[in-house]
Automatic annotation (TrEMBL):
Entry's EC annotation: 3.1.3.16
Family label: Belongs to the PP2C family.
CDD domains xrefs: PP2Cc
Catalytically driven reaction(s): O-phospho-L-threonyl-[protein] + H2O = L-threonyl-[protein] + phosphate; O-phospho-L-seryl-[protein] + H2O = L-seryl-[protein] + phosphate
Positions of the PPM-type phosphatase domain: 28-297
Protein name as catalogued: protein-serine/threonine phosphatase
Cofactor(s) listed in the protein's UniProt record: Mn(2+); Mg(2+)
Keywords, sorted A to Z: Hydrolase, Magnesium, Manganese, Metal-binding, Protein phosphatase
Enzyme class: hydrolase
Any one of the GO BP annotations: regulation of intracellular signal transduction
InterPro entries cross-referenced by the UniProt entry: PP2C (IPR015655), PPM-type-like_dom_sf (IPR036457), PPM-type_phosphatase-like_dom (IPR001932)
Pfam families, sorted: PP2C (PF00481)
GO MF annotation terms: metal ion binding; protein serine/threonine phosphatase activity
Length: 428
């Protein structure tokens, strides 16, 4: 088995000692300090959050520590938000192949996030409860930030120099034309609430159910074309660091991304989170649950909080996204870091499961030669697994027997999300 720096197959195992020594070698660039703060004002009691700063990619190896920050904004009750807070993280991590080095682990995260979101939704719907929740789920591993989201909670990035970028996409039917078209193509009906006399009021909603979001976890009474497949974005910050503001729509209905970032610049994270909530309430009042998490990713030699805003914002945005090939040399990373550019490593928002899980002959294969379902991780005999590409419109260049594979239950879920069968109808 190769234990050098070359790429390994996902199912190869590496001794823990070798993995730890390789980690130590690779950690030449010091990790940033992560500081965070949280603030909230409750109206309906349906906002929940998760802060976990002691996760370890390799159990027992402190140098593999990463942090998770998430907000879940429930609707039609709080059951889905509570369930998602309790189970989503473990479902995502169980979908990441074992024995990966840090770079490969980061590359595996986007697919694992999709699997974890879908598994959480499937499990919650099996309980027969009708509530739903948005989920904005952020993983901070050293300088790399990975964000997965469904619904309209949002995560923004504020960097030195005052450039603000959004790391999520709002899945609101009112504003998101692409999602409106997907929902109607899958069998949903989109329209406003009709009142006596035929007048229509309020935002665009999906019927049945009347939900104004096109993606969420739960909401089994609306129809399975309201999907839990997240938009995922992964970026690598420069060594100047940056500030993340993660908040429920109680904030974003009152403040633009720029207003939220500007309102708390120069404040430490805890005070910053309180200031954002205070600013939102001052602007709009407490009309909804209002929750905010601020995360500062601070260079190791700089314990000072982010600088106050510059006197004059340059017309040229200070933050530039630069795509890079997965195999690009480390030299490029160092150059980009030196000039303060944030690298965009990954971005995908498709609602098609086949597209999100990709093509991989070895995906889901265990050391015993058995396969596991790419979504729920149950073991499959070779005759049981159904390729995620079988019958897919994306299968023109793939083989229907090519992995990853789904169990029959997850295949039913996939068909329902794509509008290929009525919601709730099981296929034998």
């Amino acid at each position: 088995m190769a234990s050098g720096e070359g790429r390994r197959h996902r199912h190869d195992l590496v001794p823990l000692a070798a993995l730890i020594s390789r980690e130590m070698k690779n950690e030449k660039m010091e990790k940033p300090t992560v500081r965070y703060g949280h603030a909230a004002q409750s109206r309906k009691g349906e906002d929940y959050f998760l802060i976990k700063t002691d996760c370890q990619r390799v159990p027992g190896n402190p140098s593999s520590t990463f942090s998770v920050f998430a907000i879940f904004d429930g609707h039609n009750g709080n059951a889905a938000a509570i369930f998602t807070r309790e189970h989503l993280l473990s479902h995502v991590l169980s979908a990441v192949p074992r024995g990966l080095g840090r770079e490969e682990w980061l590359q595996a995260l986007p697919r694992a996030l999709v699997a974890g979101f879908v598994k959480t939704d499937k499990e919650f719907q099996s309980r027969g409860e009708t509530s739903g929740t948005t989920a904005t789920f952020v993983i901070v591993d050293a300088w790399t930030v990975t964000v997965a989201s469904v619904g309209d909670s949002r995560c923004i990035l504020d960097t030195q120099g005052g450039a603000v970028s959004t790391l999520t996409v709002d899945h609101r039917l009112e504003e998101n034309v692409e999602e409106r078209e997907r929902v109607t193509a899958s069998g949903g009906e989109v329209g406003r609430l009709s009142i006596v006399g035929g007048a229509e009021i309020g935002p665009l909603r999906c019927w049945p159910g009347g939900l104004c979001l096109s993606r969420s976890i739960g909401d089994m009474d609306v129809g399975e074309f309201i999907v839990p497949i997240p938009y995922v974005k992964q970026v690598k910050l420069s060594n100047a660091g940056g500030r993340l503001i993660i908040a429920s729509d109680g904030i974003w209905d009152a403040l633009s991304s720029e207003m939220a970032a500007k309102s708390c610049r120069g404040l430490p994270a805890e005070l910053a989170a309180r200031q954002v909530v205070k600013e939102a309430l001052r602007t709009r009042g407490l009309k909804d649950d209002t929750t905010c998490i601020v995360v500062d990713i601070i260079p190791p030699d700089n314990s000072i909080q982010p600088l106050p805003p510059p006197k004059k914002q340059n017309k040229l945005r200070a933050l530039l996204f630069r795509k890079r090939s997965r195999d690009s040399a480390n030299k490029l990373s160092k150059k980009l870091s030196a000039v303060g550019i944030v690298e965009e490593l990954f971005e995908e928002g498709s609602a098609m499961l086949a597209e999100r899980l990709g093509n991989d002959d070895s995906a889901g294969q265990t050391t015993s030669g058995l396969f596991t379902c790419a979504v729920c991780q149950v073991d499959l005999a070779p005759s049981e697994g159904i390729s995620v590409h079988a019958g897919s419109i994306f299968s023109t260049s793939t083989k229907p027997w090519q992995g990853p594979f789904l169990c029959a239950d997850c295949r039913n879920k996939k068909d329902a999300m794509e509008g290929k069968r009525p919601s709730g109808v099981k296929v034998a």
